Amino acid sequence: MNILVLNGPNLNRLGQREPNIYGSESLEDLEEQLKNYGQKNGFTVNLKQTNWEGQLVDWLHEANDQVDGIVLNPAAWTHYSYAIRDAIASIDTSVIEVHISHVHAREEFRKISVVAPVCVGQISGFGFLGYQMAIDYFLRRQ
Ligand code: DQA
Question: What is the pTM (predicted TM-score) of this model?
């Protein structure tokens, strides 16, 4: 099984960015954890991050039918990007929305997700573990 993990803007600053909210671990730490999890559970995982909206749209298109599942943290785009929403809707591969922080317990604008209706589901508030929880869904739904 092949899993693609996509991360949106400012997530390259994990570990330095608001550690009280997002923790002290970096994106490289996340990648290492997910690769280890993949080795133990027999799947391959590729992780990408971009600060450019069009890049994320392209990656979603390119991943269509090429991977078994996409785990997506759209970061701030979650709350307003119809382009990301439409890109998810345009592909057949299932996408799970993940947030490190508990978006529903924060500012009002974070409670809105324009991508949620076109995702399989949303995982929010479990830190890096949320990515593994999303992958568990893809492993178990087979
Ligand atoms: C986030 C939550 C978003 O509201 C925020 O804009 C992010 C990160 C999270 O993982 O908790 O950049 O997606």
Answer: 0.98
CA distance 32 to 28: 6
79 is catalytic: no
Nearest CA to ligand 1 atom 2: 75
Q: What is the CATH number of the domain that holds 40?
A: 3.40.50.9100
pLDDT digits (tens, 9 = 90+) for 20-53: 999 999 999 999 999 999 999 999 999 999 999 9
Which residues form ligand 1's pocket by a CB distance below 6 Å? 10, 73, 75-76, 78, 99-101, 103, 110
* Nearest Cα residue to atom 7 of ligand 1: 75
Structural domains counted in the chain: 1
